[in-house]
Design goal:
Blueprint: H1 4-27, H2 32-66
Helix pairs in contact: 1-2
Amino acid sequence: MFFQPLIRIINRCNGSSLRCSAAAIISASAGIWPGLIGAAFCMWESHDCKIEASEDYTACLTEAIIFSPD
């Protein structure tokens, strides 16, 4: 499938986000602010991971089109 590599990378981002979210929930037991800071960090990290995955995938496709032997 054409988008399979991108889907695989985004699934890795989602798995990492779930682990980070679990850590944020655990840190919330120390108080509301540590939990909020942890949750904000997780959301930022998840968004950043997905954006980088999309950019890498687009760059890979662009290289394949520009440098194709046709």
